[in-house]
Amino acid sequence: MRVGLVCAHAGPSRHVDGPAVGTHQHIARVAAELAERGHEVRVYERLDEPGLPPTAEQNGYRVERVPVGPAAPTPTAELVPYVAEYGRWLADRWAGDWRPEVVHGHYWIGGLAAAHAVRATDIPVVQTFHSLGVEQLRHLGREYDGPGERIPLERALTRAVDVAVAQCNDEVDELTRMGLQRTSVAMVPTGVDTEAFHPDGEAAPRDQRPRILSVGGLTPGHGHEDLIRAMRLVGDAELVIAGGPPAEQLANHSEARRLRELAQRAGVADQVKLVGAVPHDQMATWYRSADVVACTPHYSSAGRVSLEAMACGVPVVGYAMGGIADAVVDEVTGRLVPPGDVRTLGVTLRRLLADNAGRFAYGHAAVDRVRCSYTWERTASALERLYERVIGRRGPAVGKTVEETVDEAVGEVTVEAEPKTVEAA
Q1: Whether 68 and 45 share a structural domain
Q2: Tens digits of pLDDT across the chain (425 residues)
Q3: Does a structural domain hold residue 202?
Q4: Which of 277, 164, 176 is nearest to 218 (CA)?
Q5: Cβ of 203: how many Cβ atoms within 10 Å?
Q6: CA 115 to CA 126: how far, in whole Å?
Q7: Does residue 239 sit in the same domain as residue 315?
Q8: Are 299 and 322 in contact (CB under 8 A)?
């Protein structure tokens, strides 16, 4: 198959933190796995730095950098006006010698560009949102900082694609509430690199106290404040928070200061340690240094941190929501607690830290679960079957029966699509 993967953000090497990093890690690994299976894969990302070559070959697939919008890192909200231009560039590109048999949009901006590009063709579109604005708004409330046009645009996009790929059961439910037929939603969880994340290997230095590790960006909504409050119930243990800007920038980071002030007020300042950004290829050493990994974000669709920790043989205590609830089997690979229940969170952490045999059993079961159900090979295989199905069922292009014209503030982005009847894998 010829597969086009579309993402409007630039590659992860030029980002320190944020959702675009995880999205691009996901896309790169899917592209490499599909290429290894013999498919022709091209990844499209926006050119955000002058002087970069327009194309690059890596891991068996081609990266094409699309010259639309500012040639600089740009917030997502400011990319919306360039969606139509991105789509036209793709359509012109695909009118040449290489034309994809299926297009897979990633994140809502990439999906809009992909849908715009194929609107006059019979090329099917598969879409992975990676996160949904309506879910983030529900879980984060006032802490939600997404652009106002995101939610209506995501609703329009669900009517412009053949299949939406959900990464957890909660996301399946959300997509159906947004109007998609259940047969147009496929559940394909993210994968874990089990060669990089495994129990054997070096561990980051630590002291004699039990260690709880929390991984996530230093922005409201990642749940670090819940863990800090819970530490009063945990006892003598340290909480290490990895994520955010580089360590040398933490002193001037507003959220880092807020968390440290909260720890001071809670009387656990000597138990809380912020280490800043950790390169992804070094994360396994930090997971292996922990007795427990705590996953308490207010929203998580993929549950990537919980899966990486489990692959390293570390039990997870997490909020029972999103991808975390799918990944962690309660009382088998870790413990699930009600989201936002700080008291139960603290008591659960204290009891698990005191239960050496329980942590050992959870860790072994966690490794088995990841290796059986969450490898990148399984993810790529599921996507491969899904692509084959949508290609086989998509008929010739016909006059469009659905037209979604979004707010003028979006930059007159128009998404057109025909009704979809594709059955998910």
Answers
A1: yes
A2: 999 999 987 665 444 344 445 678 899 999 999 999 999 999 999 998 888 999 999 999 999 999 999 888 888 888 899 999 999 999 999 999 999 999 999 999 999 999 999 988 899 999 999 989 888 888 778 777 778 888 999 999 999 999 999 999 999 999 999 999 999 999 999 999 999 999 999 999 999 999 999 999 888 778 899 999 999 999 999 999 999 999 999 999 999 999 999 999 999 999 999 999 999 999 999 999 999 999 999 888 889 999 999 999 999 999 999 999 999 999 999 999 999 999 999 999 999 999 999 999 999 999 999 999 999 999 999 999 999 999 988 654 443 333 343 333 334 444 444 444 444 44
A3: no
A4: 277
A5: 14
A6: 9
A7: yes
A8: yes
Cβ atoms within 10 Å, residue 78: 11
Q: How far apart are CA 238 and CA 246, in angstroms?
A: 20
- CA proximity to 420, closest of 112, 77, 162: 162
Please check whether residue 200 lies inside any domain of the structure. no
- With 0.90 as the threshold, say if the pTM is over it: no
The pairing of strands 238-242 and 211-215 is parallel
Question: What are the residues whose beta carbons fall under 8 Å from the beta carbon of 236, sequence distance 6 or more?
Answer: 209, 210, 271
* Opening angle at CA 219, ends 215 and 221, nearest 5: 80
402 Rama class: left (phi>0) / alpha (psi -120 to 50) / beta: beta
Domain count, the chain: 2
Range of the domain at 123: 2-191+376-417
DSSP-derived letter for residue 239 is E
Residue 151 domain-assigned? Answer: yes
Q: Are strands 55-58 and 61-66 parallel, antiparallel or unpaired?
A: antiparallel
Amino acid 15 reads: H
Same domain (yes/no): 363, 393: no
Q: Residue 144 phi/psi, 5° resolution? A: -70, 125
CATH label of the domain that carries residue 228: 3.40.50.2000
d(CA 344, CA 320): 12
- My answer on whether 181 and 307 are in the same domain is no
CB-CB contact of 296 with 214 (8 Å):
yes
Domain membership flag for residue 329:
yes
Q: 199 phi and psi, to 5 degrees?
A: -70, -25
The DSSP H or E segment spanning 151 is helix 150-158
Q: Note whether 287 and 397 are same-domain residues.
A: no
